[in-house]
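hey team, just a heads up i'm posting the complex here instead of the shared drive bc the drive is being weird again. everything in one block, sequence lines first with there labels, then the predicted structure for the whole assembly after. its two chains so it's a bit long, scroll down
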Amino acid sequence: MTAAPMEQDGYNLRLYVAGQTPKSLAALANLKKLCETHLPGRYTIEVIDLMKDPALAQRDQIVAIPTLIRQLPEPLKRIIGDLSNAEKVLVGLDIAPS
Amino acid sequence: MASNDAMQAARPRNEAEETVEAIHRGNVDAVVVQGPSGPQVIMLQGADAPYHVLVERMSDGALTLDADGCIVYVNSRLCALTGLGAQELVGRSFASLFIGSVPQQRADDTASDAQLRRADGGDLPVSVWMRQMAMGGVVATLVTLTDMSIQRRAEEVATAERFARSILEQATDAIVVLALDGRITHASWVAEQLAGRSPVGHMFSEAFALDAESATQQSTLARFSRESLDQALATKPFHGVEVRLRDPRMSGRSFLLSAGPLVNDAKDAVGSIVTLTDITERKRAEEQQTMLVAELNHRVKNILAIVQSVAGQTLRTAPSLPAFNKAFSGRIQAVSIAHDILTQTRWIGIGFNELLTTVLAPYGVGEGRIVIEGPPVLLEARLVLPLSMVLHELATNASKYGALSAPLGQVTISWRLRDDRQRLELIWLERGGPLVEGGGSRGFGTTLIDRVVRFDLDGDAVLAFEPEGIRCKLIFALTAETTPEHLPASAVQPD
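-- predicted structure starts here --
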């Protein structure tokens, strides 16, 4: 899923989910809302469903689902959970509240 | 540097802590664990709630088996299919659900057929799909059961539909189904031919322009306007109105218009079935039958009159009862032979030669004692009976007293056409019989010949009793100038 074209200073985010579990659905919704508010036009979201291919969990050493990975900008960051605490997510992703 | 290292070392700990905390807070609903064949996703409690709802709402029965084949979960549909509660089913063996063979998982992932045991003692055909799955190191089997009775009913309905369709296609009547508004929803092949196109979607009166066959029925039909005819046909039973189609292709053809209600399962009328039966041939056959009955009546009366007359005259001339019996039987036999000929030739007529051969068969026509010579002549049907009677009288007389009564006697029958082929002249000549004594006998036989030839054959008979044998000359018309409708003269009582 791609929300906007990548830019040089953009955020490249990867969300690991497990099918359509409630937390997975909540995490995706929360993430989209947050990005649209704070990173409009500066982010991409890639959703990876581990139910379809559990082996993909190895790439980012995923333990719990949902997990959000910030690939870019570096360094890599991860946030576990349904992303319902917006403040914690903004801090975790190093996004200054606008 | 040392602080960096400390941070690096601290990071996994923090992540682990964060993971545990997220799980603890309920922020995650699945974890990934390393299984024997790579990472596996394990749902935490509650994560599969939506799937549970879906499974509970499924129209198929679903259940889960543990490694021992014991039921650990059933959905509500399975309870409905078996007629048992979930508590009764959980803990049972999978095999106990079935009558007969127990379904097994198939290598090609397809379903197999089985008979599900029901609590009411009955059974239900089901299609069973199974798959074994490793779930967090535990082996379980997922099973779905599809009620095939629904599908079988659907197949039965489809078969019935095909059956009805093929009846409609092959019916020799034009059959259309009308909705309650008079619009055609189905039409048989014949109906399409009559309409000259597919009448489906059109009002009946548009597709089939009708005229009644008779004036009285026209008034029946005229009571309806175009719209009200459609309405009446769609809603009221209609029986046996004879109609014609205005289409010039159908001119001269008669149809019987009928309509009956089409009802649904609740016995409510949902339209009607209208048939147009082509009765042209039937009407023709009826007319022909009426004509034949009248003709038969006429002929039977004639025959009865002939029999009555022959009986009366034979009685008058017969010296004794046995003599009467013999003469009367012979004459009636002649009438009978004549009728056989008429029936076999369908009252069309017969060749003269053939008539002679048939009538004279009992007197040795094939044995050389009766010689037949003459040109081919086709006799009209009306000549068959009187000629048969005349020939019978002559032959009987010859066999009793004439040429055929002696071993070497011979009869020669010769004829020719005269008067521009309008008349036939026949000579009956007997030779080789006993000497004929002067005058001969003018018994009933000769009287009958005279009368029949004169009145029925419109001709003349000259009977000469020559000493060597009888010579009889008959001249009669081959074609009647007008068709006489009176009784034959043989039926007229003598003065």
